[in-house]
Amino acid sequence: MLGVSGHFCRLTGWCVAGLLSAGLLGLFLLSLALVGAQALTPSHHLSLSDVARLHSFLSQSFTDLESAYYSIVGLTKLGANVADQRIPVSNETRDILLAAVSEDSTVAQIHRAVGALSSLGLPLASQEVVAALTARINKEDNVMAITLALHTAARLSAQADFVGILEEIEDLTARLDDLGGVYLQFEEGLEATALFVTAAYALSDHVDMEPPLKEDQVIQLVNSIFSKKSWDSLAEAFSVASAAAAFSSNRFHVPVIVSAQGPATVSHSQPTLQLLVTDVLSQPLASASVLVESAYAVASKSVILSQAPFTLNDGVFELNFMSSQPASGYYQFTVAVTGDSRLIANHVELKVKVSTEVAITNMDLSVVDKDQSIGTKTTRVDYPSKAKSSFTADSHQNFAMSFQLVDVNTGVELTPHQTFVRLHNQKTGQEVVFVAEPDSKNLYKFELDTAERKSEFDSISGTYSLYLIVGDATLENPILWNVADVVLKFLDEEAPATVQPKTLYVPKPEIQHLFRKPEKKPPTVVSNTFTALVLSPFLLLLILWFKLGANISNFSFSPSSILFHIGHAAMLGLMYVYWTHLNMFQTLKYLAIIGSLTFLAGNRMLAQKAVKRIAAEQSSRLAKYRSLR
Amino acid sequence: MSNSVLSVISRFLEEYTTTTPNKLKVVDAYLLYIMLTGALQFLYCLLVGTFPFNSFLSGFISCVGSFILAVCLRIQINPQNKGDFLSISPERAFADFLFAHTVLHLVVMNFIG
User: Fold this and answer.
1) Can you name the residues that pair with A245 across neighbouring β-strands?
2) Residues of chain A found within 8 Å of residue B110, distances taken between Cβ atoms
3) How far is B85 from chain A (nearest CA, A)?
4) For the structural domain made of A358-488, what CATH number should be given?
5) SS3 for A43?
6) Which CATH code, of 1.10.1740.10, 3.30.110.10, 3.40.50.1820, 2.60.40.10, is assigned to A257-354?
7) Which residues does chain B have within 8 Å of residue A578's beta carbon, measured at their own beta carbons?
8) Per-residue pLDDT tens for B57-94?
9) For A530-548, what is the HEC assignment?
10) In terms of CB atoms within 10 Å, which of A288, A289, A554, A560 comes out highest?
């Protein structure tokens, strides 16, 4: 019994879309818009090696019926011959299958039943199936279910009414996600997209109606389905094989793949441009005719070819491009493939390179005196030999070189991208490279002013080998030619004593940190002298006070005065301690304590003194008053 | 000319020694001492240099501040100025002198370094 489990619904977790952010998408779309209305061509297809890989993947030995189905049917789609399987059917089986076709079964079950019935050649009522399918589509509105419905419909008789089902193709197309204008796929993944393509074309072929897919959409689907070259599961491989078969052999759209065989380069030795024109399975389209609509040079935009046909030679389309005698460079080809109305993406743009060989002619070397008093003596050297004698140039002379570069085959003058003159000091290994520039007549000139360029040579005199280097992308024979030896003489006093290799990556000398030098202090003798000098007025004070008769005989030993004096002494002591140990906050704290004590005691003491003074004044006034009377 | 200056000075000194009370002479002696100390500090600074500048400043300002406070004390305890300082007794003047000195010395000590 051909039972197929509903693994079509199994989704492979394929997230490519996650990588393309909105910004990239916008930029991509903008660049595509700017490029202009260039027709979309497939960027991915299954090359012959890919097809072989798909074949071997599908040829895995199968352990269950599902794998057997994928393997056998997949290989059949790729065109392989698979041994026939014969299965006997009983009446009961047939009844079960017929009963499965109803609104109550899922689309997958209907698909299996119809598939089994039609494969076994049993009759079935197509209209009933269509009705059941339409009802189920309304209930199961997902991509896989609708794809299965399309597959099922493709197995029914052509007379059934398919209008409703055909509209589903258009609905599903609208659900595809456009990624950057290059890819078109369902968010459910590669398998869903590939199965949809297979189903859409199967049904369209069955009812002979073109599917509502635009050419650009078909190409985008091709890109999506064939961009993955190794497959996670048999189901995925099967879906890709089915889609490939659908694209290469349906009745409406056959995408064309045009690619150059080998590099797209022509030259005298290889004058023909060879193109492979195939379908997505890399099978050649024998009935096609290939034509160059136009070919123009990229540099000059002049048209070289127009409406030139390719000739089919052993499966490959050939065109002898060199017969048009193109100059070397790059050419833009527009190729059209015709012959079958089903072909799409059949206008392709190709970039073709024409390469050639270069020859150096008229190589003249000379040493010219700067004041032009002595006539120049030019030596002609022919490639690839070297000049017999070496040239000497000192600071009063210039070394000059002139030559021409021509195309070997056509004699046209060339201006390659790289024309360098390299001077290599044989003793020190130093090398200096200059560029030779062409003048308006394409004659290359190089002049070495010894005095001007001495910094590049580090003023090291000696024998330098002169090499000419010529290269370009369109040259088949790049040249490295030791033309001559040049002895350069620089003024010796400017030359460094020894050649210093540039020491860039050597540890640098250590920087010693210089701490701030303490300030210069005067000698101790001076400081001591002045200290004594500054303290001497105190002695003077004591002497004066003694002479004036200042004394402490009036000192009253009352507790407040004693306390006051102790407190005052403590405050002075606190000043000294502040200078040596404390900070302002601590000092203020202690000062507050001592100060308040001293203040109270002093207040008391002074009040007592004031009382005494007033009493003394009063008594003296009284005495004066009495004496006056 | 010098004669008259000399005679002025000798007359001034004579009057000073006779009319000034002893208390004021004591304060005057103290004032002289402070002035000399300050002058000598300044002389050192001129001759040797200002290093360390903060110490010099603190010492000099201490002398200047003390001189000013002592002058204030002298004015306030002079019995001839009693009329100007009716609410301030000599004891009160001395107490103010001591308090102001405390603040001055706090600042000076902070700055001495």
Assistant:
1) none
2) 578, 584
3) 15
4) 2.60.40
5) coil
6) 2.60.40.10
7) 106, 109-110
8) 999 999 999 999 999 999 998 888 888 888 888 888 99
9) HHHHHHHHHHHHHHHHHHH
10) A288
